[in-house]
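ASSEMBLY PREDICTION REQUEST
Request ID: AP-0331
Submitted by: J.K., bench scientist
Number of chains: two
Total residues: 644
Priority: normal
Notes: Please return the full assembly, not individual chains.
Input sequences:
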Amino acid sequence: MSSLAILMARKTPFDVIAENFTLLALALLSFSAIVFLIFLLGSRSSVKTQEWLKYLVFLVPALLLLLIGLIYPTFRTLIMSFMDKESETFVGFDNYIWAFTIPEINVVLVNTLIWTLTVPLISTLLGLAIAYMTDRMKRPAAIKSLIFMPMAISFVGAGVIWKFVYNYQPREGQPEIGLLSAIFKAIGLTPPNWLLEAPLNTYLLIVVMIWIQTGFAMVVLSAALKNVPDEIVEAAMLDGATAFKRFYLVSVPMIRATIVVVLTTIMIGTLKVFDIVRTMTGGNFQTNVIANEMYSQSFRQMNYGQGSALAIILFVAIIPIIVYNIRQLRLERTER
Amino acid sequence: MTSLVNKTSVKAKAKNIFSSPIAAFAAWVIAILWTIPTFGLLVTSIRPEKDINTSGWWTFFANPNISFENYTQVLFEGSTTNPPLFQFFFNSLAVTIPAVVFPITLAVFAAYALAWFNFKGRDFIFFSIFALQVVPIQLALIPLLQLFAKGVEIGGVTVIPDFDITGTYIPIWIAHTIFGLPLAIFLLHNFLAQIPRELIEAARVDGAGWFTLFSKIVLPLSVPAIASFAIFQFLWVWNDLLVGLTFGGGKKEVAPMTIRLAEMVGTRGSGWELLTAGAFVSMVVPLIVFFALQRYFVRGLLAGSVKG
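STATUS: Completed
Returned structure:
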């Protein structure tokens, strides 16, 4: 084992890359070869064979993966949430009692609640405002691209970007290199130690998520606004409605369904947020959220019981949204 | 009074009010505000280390000092225990390519079946997949990891690390495939279901089997939808931290760039010259993809979230 470790340590980055890309090529080649062979076989088989073969080829692989990789694990996690840290003995509701009574975890739950309320609301409102402002603009592409851009950046990358904005410089007399501190000093205020001060730090992290999600809200909502017929807006104008009244009495009700979709999509994304908190504060200084605590419990403390209980709590928070979504989809299908 | 105003002038007036200079100005202000943090990172990454730590990045324009030292250092300098960033760049590529190809292939297949095969339970399966879209992956992490580990124990008596799939890309690929499937199937199904019934039926009447029908008609028609989802999945996998962290087994040989970057933040919290350059390296590929293919990306986004 130790000689192996030395052998591994001798590898240069080029060796690693060569090895990795050999595996990559092998995987892609064998995958396409299998698909090609199956198609060759399938298209040559008789009509009768194709009637059952088609399910086996097209439907079964995906369903099997979902069954093994998502549905079975969900039930397994549910069971594990009622067991001890090594998943050996049942402990009843102990892990849930732990989650709702330990003060540190209460902070986690409260923070998660703050995140899931503020991020969707503010992102959607901002996105809607920008969508409306740019709706009849001649060349909105540049503006929209810039606001949408954070969607392409990883949460870790966004964490680095904003950590730099929030940089705190403790030494007296030294120039500030963090933008926010510099602005504070320029207007004569003393900058706080941004990411260390609770509850300010949680809101500063929330800003990062809003920065990312506003572009999403803007893009989806401006597409919806484009679908509002001109005639209706014009009729409202003829009736003497002001621009603001036209906005919240005509446009907003007409795109209400889309607004709800945007709100719920952002809400789900926010509930699962993990990378931002982990990168920027590591969940310290009372900024922790449920997805990050779930990771720490499961993969740092190796406490599968408590980790699973947190995952289930996260899931329960999402269930109403799932139910709502399914009902909406049903309605749409019957309308068609 | 208003009844006398003809329609075209009202339309012109509406345009004027909506594109009022105040709204345009406000939109520009927001757009610039939104870009400043990223811009600051980019500017910082091309300044010499000494400048970065002694003055704000905005002073760069008064005293422009450009250096690419940060990039050469973060990309190429390292040790065997701390490999240089360019290795992680290729790791990210090796993670991402199959993690985009596999789910798309399987999802196109499943979407085709759900849209065009008539069988009992089709709606139930479709609704279940739709619901699975929002199930947090946190729920699946531990059991799925244990599944990968157990599979190896059954396979062989002596577990040799090199042949062991934990610690290789294979678990990461499989995990990304599984987690990407629900959204992929849902998006592609919505698209494939819109293919005109006459087209499918005409081909069937001409004697095309289900496989020929797929490769000759359905697949060529679904290329735009596949492109949209490919960009989605690409950005998702490239930017992912959680799956790489858990399914990579903590190995540097397979860790994508996000893991390295997160590690750099933790260990050298104040090394801004390396952090900013490293962050920009990790962002450059998704940003190129994003700006080059924004149209497809937006289309995919709308298909997934705007109903109707």
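REVIEWER COMMENTS: Residues 1-7, 152-163 of chain B have pLDDT under 50 and may be disordered.
SIGN-OFF: pending second reviewer
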